[in-house]
Design a protein that fits this description.
This protein is mostly beta strands. It contains 5 helices and 37 strands. The longest helix is centred in the N-terminal third of the chain and has 18 residues.
Length: 458
């Protein structure tokens, strides 16, 4: 118990439990009374109906459910657990939501409400969720926390579902993984993983690791050693993961978003920093579809010879669409020159489309065509990357390319528009018809505003 308030709260709960339920249910779970009762669980089954009892810890709840399933052949349809005090999950029994013998035997929703207390996890793989099962960890009060040293906190397999809702802090070890999605075929069932904006992972190695047929929604705040999202080898487009990252804050010492297999990744705002040496923020090394709608992406250092240190790095076969955001590359550890924000390895095999965004130190298609250093003034691929519906300006002084949706502004209405000084390079937009020629004349008067002529490069 963390404080006097909790002690008093536990005393009240204990008295209420004794007055309402009498002696705590024994069954296979260890009997408890008074301060020893750290868990209140409601188990709904096919034979016993809905029963609420108090237990010493989660291991006792596991034992109770196993007894009902293995001994009585009961089907469990729902489990709701609320912490009454700080408690532990230890021993050899994993809290496994499946229908197999010697599992906990539940193909049903399980909710663990931390209620402002800490769950101390002392099992290498404490939570396993498989087809037919779901696990929700909920924080309904200040102080709700899951802490411990694990291999993987939650493993979601074969169509299982995991959600974390409310204000929950996960304080793990630097070598631990928060959630793994493990199931590579559609026949196994699609995995679902959802976190919300109140989720905090104070420490872990990787937050979300998947090779699976999965729908993953990421939000919250993460301080990690390696990836926020890591997509491993997946050679099937049909079984590709769909990953939506929503307004997340992430500080990592490696690539924040690393996709090494088929996936559809969408980033909707947030702040992402790759704080380690020789890492890019978003690194796509396989055939994937990437959409960035907004956000701030910052790399701190990298190497042009190793193709690292970019805000976004796109490997062969991948496609990207950028609709907004601020992208800043890192400093080359050898040359001490800043790298371009966007690096696309092969202009012949990738497709890119930029409608809006700010790219500090420019955009580049490959080191062989534009050089490894960020030099937007000399970048000949910018026009190919920017959508035909957008315009861009090149600021030679701070080496920034700014892309905006829509036609160029009228200089008479916007005389103070930044980045349009006469000493900056001109771009010569191509035209398609008479109307395009008139637009070209207006744009040419600005001197530095270019209109991309290709929506995608091939």
């Amino acid at each position: 118990m963390k404080n006097l308030k909790r002690m008093l709260g536990l005393l009240v709960v204990s008295v209420m439990a004794i007055s309402v339920m009498g002696t705590a249910k024994a069954a296979s779970g260890t009997p408890c009374s008074g301060d020893a009762c750290h868990i209140r669980a409601t188990i709904v089954g096919s034979k016993e109906g809905s029963e609420t009892a108090t237990y010493g810890d989660l291991t006792d709840v596991v034992a109770e459910i196993k007894d009902r399933v293995d001994t009585d052949g009961e089907k469990i349809t729902k489990v709701d657990i609320t912490l009454l005090a700080d408690t532990v999950l230890s021993g050899s029994d994993t809290f496994k939501t499946d229908g197999q013998t010697h599992g906990t035997g539940i193909t049903c929703p399980v909710t663990i409400n931390l209620a402002g207390y800490e769950l101390d996890v002392q099992v290498a793989s404490p939570f396993v969720v498989v087809k037919g099962g779901s696990l929700t960890i909920n924080g309904s009060g200040t102080g709700s926390q899951v802490a411990g040293t694990v291999t993987t906190l939650v493993s979601v397999q074969r169509g299982g579902t995991f959600k974390t809702t409310g204000k929950v802090t996960y304080a793990l070890d630097d070598n631990d993984t928060f959630v793994v999605a493990d199931g590579t075929t559609a026949s196994s069932g699609r995995i679902t993983i959802i976190t919300d904006a109140s989720t905090t992972v104070e420490s872990a190695k990787v937050a979300f690791d998947t090779t699976a047929y999965a729908d993953i929604t990421v939000a919250g705040n993460y301080d990690l050693q390696e990836q926020l999202v890591k997509v491993g080898t997946n050679n099937s487009k049909v079984n590709a993961s769909v990953i939506n990252v929503n307004a997340t804050t992430s500080s990592v010492k490696a690539n924040a978003l690393l996709v090494g297999g088929y996936a559809k990744l969408t980033v909707n705002g947030g702040k992402y920093t790759a704080d380690g040496a020789d890492n890019s923020v978003v690194s796509i090394t396989a055939i994937s579809d990437v959409t960035i709608n907004n956000g701030t992406f910052t790399a701190t250092s990298g190497s042009s010879t190793l193709d690292t240190g970019y805000a976004v790095r796109l490997g062969a076969g991948a496609t990207i669409k950028i609709n907004g955001g601020t992208f800043t590359s890192g400093e080359d550890t050898v040359t001490r020159e800043y790298l371009p924000a966007l690096f696309i390895t092969d202009i012949a095999k990738n497709k890119g489309n930029v409608t809006a965004g700010t790219f500090n130190y420019g955009m580049v298609a490959s080191s062989t065509t534009s050089g490894g250093e960020g030099n937007p003034d000399a970048d000949k691929n910018t026009e190919d990357l920017v959508a035909t519906t957008s315009t861009y300006t090149v600021n030679k002084d701070d080496k920034t390319v700014v892309v905006k949706a829509g036609a160029a502004s009228d200089p008479e209405k916007d005389p103070e528009k930044p980045g349009t000084s006469d000493d900056q390079p001109s771009e010569n937009p191509k035209t398609f018809d008479a109307i395009g020629s008139l637009v070209t004349m207006a744009i040419s008067s600005l001197g530095v505003v270019g209109t991309a002529t290709k929506k995608m490069f091939k």
